[in-house]
Amino acid sequence: MEDTLPLSLSHVNKSLVFTNRLHMLLHFTALCFLVYYRLRFFFQDPQTQTPLFPWLLVFVSEIILSFLWILDQAFRWHPISRTVFPDRLPQDDKLPPIDVFICTADPTKEPTLDVMNTLLSAMALDYPPEKLHVYVSDDGGSPLTLNAMKEAWKFARWWLPFCNRYRIECRCPKAYFSVSENDGDFDGSTEFLSDNKMIKERYEAFKGDIKRVKEDQGNSGDTTGIMSQNHSPIIEVIHEISSSEMEQVKLPSLVYVSREKKPSHPHHFKAGALNVLYRISAVMSNAPYILVLDCDMFCNAPASARQALCFHLDSKISPSLAFVQFPQKYHNISKNDIYDSEHRSAYKVLWQGMDGLTGPVLSGTGFYLKRESLYGNYKIKDTDLEIQQYVGTSNEFIKSLNQNCTLYSATVGHTLPREEILHLASCNYEIGTKWGKEVGFLYGTVCEDVHTGFMLNCNGWNSVLYDPPQPQFLGNGTTNLNGLLVQGTRWYAGLLDIGLSRFCPLICGPLRMSLLQSLCYAQLTCFPLYCLPLWCLAIIPQLCLVDGIPLYPKVSDPFFFIFLFIPLSAFTKHLVEVLSTGGTFRKFIIEQRIWMIGSITSHLFGCLDALLKKFGLKEASFLPTNKVEDDEQTRLYQMDKYDFRTSNMFLVPMVSLLIINISCFIGGMYRVLSVGDWDQMFIQLFLPAYIIVINYPIIEGLVIRKDVGRIYPSAALVVTSNILATIITSTLYSLLRKV
Ligand SMILES: O=c1ccn([C@@H]2O[C@H](COP(=O)(O)OP(=O)(O)O[C@H]3O[C@H](CO)[C@@H](O)[C@H](O)[C@H]3O)[C@@H](O)[C@H]2O)c(=O)[nH]1
Ligand SMILES: [Mn+2]
Question: Which residues form the active site (predicted)?
Answer without folding.
Answer: 139, 449
